[in-house]
Specification:
The chain has 188 residues and is an alpha+beta fold. Helices cover 29% and strands 37% of the residues. The strands form 2 sheets. The chain has a 4-stranded antiparallel beta sheet with strand order 2-1-7-8. Strands 5-4-3-6 form a 4-stranded antiparallel beta sheet, with helices on both faces.
């Protein structure tokens, strides 16, 4: 099973982003855009895991949640990874409260012990993936639309829980199933 740990984006913010996605899809309809219902902030991508590891992962995430405070997230802006000249991903920006970094470090620590390696080349950069590009090239129209929306504000929320999610890759796009939810239990 293919797993990741993430925070879901509330419906009101997903609907705000869906309006932008429809605008961008009209400009580049042939690209594979993420579905608004799949929008999430990944805290840790585990990759392929054995079903026998699931209980250990769940216990580890409950341990993290017991000592973690809710995370404040503000969503604004658009950009590209690695950059606009060679874009692989179009993202919406996510600015988090300072405790998000320590929660991600705790998640990494507990999962590292279970054999899920840390991403060595990248630090935690919270974002929403709107589009993955197979060929790093953009039409001028899509580039212009992205630049026009570079500082667009989508809204904010406080995450009081995070999830362990299974991802099944299908020809119609990824299908996500929440396997477990974990509430932040520490007093704010």
């Amino acid at each position: 099973m293919r797993l990741f740990v993430a925070i879901h984006v509330p419906e009101d913010i997903r609907m705000t982003i869906a309006i932008l996605l429809r605008e961008l899809q009209r400009i580049a309809p042939a690209l594979k855009w993420n579905k608004p219902e799949n929008l999430h902030v990944t805290l840790k991508f585990l990759g392929e895991a054995d079903a026998s590891q699931l209980d250990s992962v769940v216990k580890a995430m409950f341990t993290v949640a017991r000592t973690a405070h809710p995370i404040t997230l503000n969503l604004a802006g658009l950009g590209f990874f690695p950059n606009a000249r060679r874009p692989n991903v179009l993202w919406a920006g996510v600015h988090t409260s300072a405790n998000a970094q320590s929660i991600v470090q705790e998640i990494n620590h507990h999962l590292d012990v279970l054999g899920f390696a840390r991403e060595k080349q990248r630090q935690f950069t919270p974002h929403l993936t709107l589009l993955r590009l197979n060929k790093p090239a953009l039409s001028r129209d899509l580039q212009s639309a992205t630049e026009r929306n570079a500082s667009r504000v989508f809204g904010g929320f406080t995450a009081t829980e995070f999830h362990l999610i299974e991802s099944k890759l299908k020809s119609t796009g990824a299908e996500y199933t929440i396997l477990h939810s974990f509430s932040f239990l520490a007093e704010a």
